[in-house]
Structure formats: C-alpha cells, structure tokens
Design a protein that fits this description.
Layout lengths: L2 H27 L12 H36 L3 E2 L2 E2 L2 H16 L9 H38 L7 H41 L2 H6 L3 E2 L14 E2 L2 H32 L2 H16 L2 H22 L9 H26 L2 H9 L4 H29 L3 H6 L17 H9 L8 H31 L5
Antiparallel strand pairs: 1-2, 3-4
C-alpha cells in the first residue's frame, strides 16, 4: 500500500476508534444510570481512544519513513558488484543514481550492466517489502492501541484529564519545535559564516567596496581571489528599501487615517479588504509588473527630461515594493488607530477642536508607538524582498545613490550564490551565509526596536 493510501486508511481507523470509544462509554454506563454517572463525557472517551490509536501508529510511520531510505540504500549497496568486486565509495553515488534511473525508466542512451539491472530489481523488491511491512505494522499497532483504550473505559475512568494532559504535551512539543527550529537556523548560519570569515577577513567583508565573489577552482586560474566587499549590497538594499518606505508609509498611513476616522462603515467594509488584497499577490507578479510596466514608464519619462535611466533601476523596484507593503502599514496603523479610546476623541471635540486637529494632536500621538512598530515591521519586509529586485533592479553590485541605476540587494546575491550545484567549501558559497547573518541581524534589530518603542511609549487606557 502506498504511503498516501496508508495514511488515508489510518485516518479511517482513527475515526472508527473515536466512534467505538464514544459508543462504548455510553453502553458501559447504560445499566447504571446513563451518561450522568460517567466521570468524563463520552466525547473525551472517544478522543482518548482515537489518540491511543493515532499517536503510536503515526510515530511508527514517521520513524519508518525516516530510516527506510538509508537502510534500503545500505542493502542495495552491499549487493552492487562489478567484475566480482564491490564498488568503491567514490563511485557509489553515481551507481545509486543510475539504479534509480533504471527503476524509474528514465535512463536513456546508456546500456546498463547486468549488475546494475540486478541492483534495480533488488531495490524494487526491497521497497515493495518495506511498504507491505510498514502497512501491516502501522495498522496493527493502530488497532491494538485502539482496542487497549477500549478495555480501559469504565464509569470512573478520568478520560478528560488524560486527554487534556495529552494535548498539553502536544502544545509544549510544538512550542519546543518552533524554538529549536529557530535555534538550529541561527546556529547553522553562524557556523557557516565563521567558516567564511576564516578565509575572508570580517573587515574586508563589512567595509570592502567591491563585490565580485567569483573564485577560481584551480590555483593557476586568473582572477581567482574574488572580492567580497559587501558595502555595495548593503547600499543597494538600503536604497531600494528607502524608496519603498517613501511610498508605503505616507500612502498606508493616510489610508489608515481615512478608513478609521472619515470613512463610513459601508465604505470601510469594502475598501479595507481591497487594500489587503495587495498583501496576497505573489511577489513574482509584482516583479512582472515592475519589469514590464513600471521600468519602461520610468525610462520613457526620464528620456523626456533629458535623463537616461537604466532599464533595470532601483527606482522601479522601490516603487513597486512600496506598493506591495502598503497593506502592512495600512492594516497595522488602522488597528492601532481604532484602539485609541473614543473618549479621547470626544473630549478633544468637546473642547472645541476640529476633527483634523483631534486626529493630529490626540489620535496620532496616542497611536504613534503602534504606527512606528508597523513601519519598522514593513521595513523588515522590504529588506527581505527578493523577486521584485531580481526582475526590476538587476544583479549588478554597484555602489551608488542614484535611483535610476541598476543595483542589487543582499537577498538577491544570496540566491545567486546558491543557485545550481555548489560546493560548500569555497568562500563564494559560504559568502551567502555571511550575507544571511547580516540580514538576520538587521531584521532582528528592527523588530527589537519596534518592540522597544511599543513597550516604552505605550499608554494604558481604561
């Protein structure tokens, strides 16, 4: 049975165990007073039975899927021989890839040896046997768990306590997974960055003005030293992000003020979801729009006034990126402005202030910490954008403040360095981790500043 079909069958068994567990709890207490004599509701008995059916079987399935490929690979390797001798370790990867292609029927133009054909048949047989064994083991364990849970059902059995304890453990495990994943990401980036800084000095990376990460494979290759000065990348990132914020902050903030303070309820009901649709558009679509519409328009407008903008410019990427992050500023600012108590507005209006004066002198100052937090979060989003920059700003690492020229960003270079088959032993590839560490540090700093501003200047209202 295929894994997908096995999981579907497992879901059906779990659902059946819930029904049987709930029904048995009702039937057990039927002769002695009914459901009211149960320690826990029938629902909890059904859920506990389903958990005893699901948890062990799913855990076994996970372990099986994790360790099965390596075990099967080891068994297949032990059978591959050429001319009566085992294949050397440096050729095993190629041999296994060939065996996989034979099994998939995608090996074209090559006549495989009999040893490889035998290995492909052996691999197919092992996978079929493993799949059958996993099906039997998982379904048997699920049924045994469900049957054992059914035998525990009694009027005094505290199923609710056990169910709640189980879900508490699950929630704790999910929290730990999130924390451990974050720690793993940070440590992996840090360790690889340290390997990079062993080859390239930190000062050259942080303060160098030339970025050309192409390094030689051979010692005698010309121009093999590379240049890893990241200042042009930082400058390009800041330039595009600054242009984006010039677009997003005023437009988003003004839209939030209008929707919160001036718009009617009906108008707000339709307009706010339309603005937030911008956040759901894929960034690659924004990239197409920037490359095919905005960039040509900027080039034509520039030529009309005697300028010669590049076909890929920071201005085009920044303008479109600003449109993309308008919903971040608008939605967060709108929520913060709406959180300002109406009593402050009424008090200001009662003292003779106009609506615009109330907004400028009461509402905005009261909501300012939240607005600043939203702006900084939007800035983090702009700094981490990739697709729009790739399609509209180019790949050239130039140290310039001219928005009409082609520039690149940190994220674009990370993608460029890791495209294709790469060896993680050269400074060229490891440079991506150093750039990622800098990007992580900047965005973390912006988020920390946002949280600090909110915490320090937040006002508590009754």
């Amino acid at each position: 049975m295929e894994t997908s079909n096995l999981l579907l069958a497992l879901v059906l068994v779990i659902a059946a165990s819930y029904v049987f567990g709930r029904g048995r709890s009702i039937s057990v207490v039927a002769p002695v007073g009914g459901i009211k004599t149960l320690n826990s509701l029938p629902f909890y008995h059904g859920v506990l039975t389903a958990l005893w059916c699901a948890v062990p079987s799913l855990f076994l399935t996970l372990l099986w899927l994790l360790f099965e490929p390596k075990i099967i690979e080891t068994l297949v390797i032990s059978q591959i021989t050429i001319d009566g001798e085992l294949v050397s370790s440096d050729k095993l990867g190629l041999m296994l890839n060939t065996v996989e292609n034979i099994l998939a029927g995608t090996l074209l133009g090559i006549e495989p040896s009999q040893a490889l054909l035998d290995a492909a048949e052996h691999l197919k047989s092992l996978r079929q046997t493993s799949q059958m064994a996993m099906t039997v083991a998982v379904l048997s364990l699920a049924m045994m768990g469900g049957l054992w849970a059914l035998t525990q059902i009694s009027p005094n059995f505290g199923a609710r306590v056990k169910v709640e304890k189980t879900f508490k453990i699950v929630l704790l495990a999910c929290s730990c997974i999130a924390i451990l994943t974050t720690i793993g990401i940070v440590l992996s980036v840090i360790f690889e960055s340290l390997r990079f800084f062993k080859s390239i000095p930190v000062t050259d990376f942080l303060f160098g003005l030339q970025w050309s990460p192409q390094t030689a494979i051979r010692v005698d290759q010309v121009g093999g030293s590379g240049a890893f000065g990241a200042v042009p990348l930082f400058a390009g990132t800041m330039l595009i992000s600054f242009i984006a914020m010039l677009v997003a902050v005023p437009v988003g903030l003004m839209a939030a003020i209008y929707l919160s303070e001036y718009a009617s309820t009906g108008f707000r009901t339709y307009i706010k979801p339309l603005i937030e649709i911008l956040a759901g558009i894929p960034t690659v679509v924004y990239g197409f729009f920037a490359a095919l519409t905005v960039a040509p328009a900027i080039r034509e407008a520039g030529s009309m006034v005697g300028l010669s903008p590049s076909s890929e410019s920071a201005l085009a990427a920044g303008l479109v990126m600003g449109v993309m992050i308008i919903p971040f500023v608008s939605s967060l600012s709108d929520d913060v402005i709406n959180a300002v108590p109406q009593s402050l507005r009424d008090g200001s209006l009662g003292l003779g202030a106009t609506r615009s004066e109330t907004i400028k002198q009461v509402v905005i100052p009261a909501a300012l910490p939240g607005i600043v937090s939203g702006v900084l979060l939007a800035a983090s989003r702009a700094i981490g954008e990739t697709m729009i920059v790739v399609m509209a700003a180019g790949l050239a690492a130039k140290l310039t403040a001219n928005p009409l020229e082609s520039v690149t960003t940190v994220t674009v270079q990370i993608v460029t360095l890791l495209v294709g088959d790469q060896e993680f032993d050269s400074p060229k590839t490891l440079a991506a981790f150093a750039l990622g560490l800098m990007l992580f540090t900047v965005t973390l700093g912006l988020n920390f500043i946002a949280q600090h501003v909110v915490k320090k200047y937040r006002e508590q209202y009754d």
